[in-house]
Amino acid sequence: MRKLIPILLAAAALGNAGCNDSSSPRDVSPPAAPRGLFSVTGDGSVKLSWLANTEGDLQGYRVYEAGCASGSNCPYDRIGATQATQIVVSGLTNGTTRYFAVSAVDNDGNESPLSYDDVYDTPRPAGSTALTNFFSDTTIPARWVSDTTHTGWDFSAFAKVRLNDPSSDVFYGNNGNIAQMFATWIQGQQPTEIQDAGYASSLDAVDYAPQAGWSPTGTVELIKDHNYIVWTWDDHYAKFRVTSISSSTVSLDWAYQVAASNGELHARPVHTATNSPRRIVWLR
Length: 284
Fold this sequence. Notes:
The chain is an all-beta fold and 284 residues long. The chain has no helices and 17 strands.
C-alpha cells in the first residue's frame, strides 16, 4: 500500500510558522484478472503460463492451487508469486489432478480476481529408454517365446519386457528395410493402439490425441524426431519421441499418464483398431 506522506511546507525563511498537509489519493482499483492461463504437464510438476497484464503499475502475479475447480469446499491456496508470466509448480503427485489459478497485484497491493480459465493438470512420470530390435534374435520362432533381448516396453512399469509379455504395450523391430514400433494385441485383451504424431522439437509438443488416425495395422514406421501417441490395452495414454535409431536399437523419450479415467480423459468408447475417438491429456 502506498503510504500517505504528509508534506511539510516549511516557510521559516519567509517568517511563516504554519504548515499544510497533503497526500496522494490511494489507488484502490485492482488490476484485471490474468488471461490465457494454460499448463504443460511434467513429471511431478506443472508449468503454468499466461498472458502479461498491461497495467503500468503492475507488481507481479500470485499463483494458487486447489484440489477441485470451485465451491465452498474447494479453497485455492496461494503457492507462489512471480514477476514473470510463467512458473513451474513442483512437488506434485503423479496421477493426481490439481487445479490452478493466477491473480495480478499492483504496486499498492491491490489484487485482481483469480484468472477465469478452468485450468487443471495431472502430472505424469517420464523418462528415456532404449529397446533392442527383436529381429536381432535369430532363434525363430523361439524368439516369440523367449525374447532374451527384451524388445518390448511396459509403460505402466517403466520397464523393458519380452515382446510376448502380457504387460507389453509396444515393441521394436527393424527388418533391415524399415524400422517399426508394433502395438501389442494379445488374445483375450483389448489391443494397444498407436499413431505417428509427426515431427516435433520436443516430447512436450504433443498434448492431445486426435479422434482419428490410429494405425489400422497396429504398427508405425519409426522416424527420428517424430512423436508417437499410444493408447494402451489397459486404458492409459502414453507418448514417446524417437531420439536415435539404428538397425539394432531405438532410443526413446517417453511419458505415461498413470491416471486412468480421471477428469482430463474422455469416457472410453468401444475400443477397436480403426475407430477409437478420444483425446490425450498430458500437457494442457
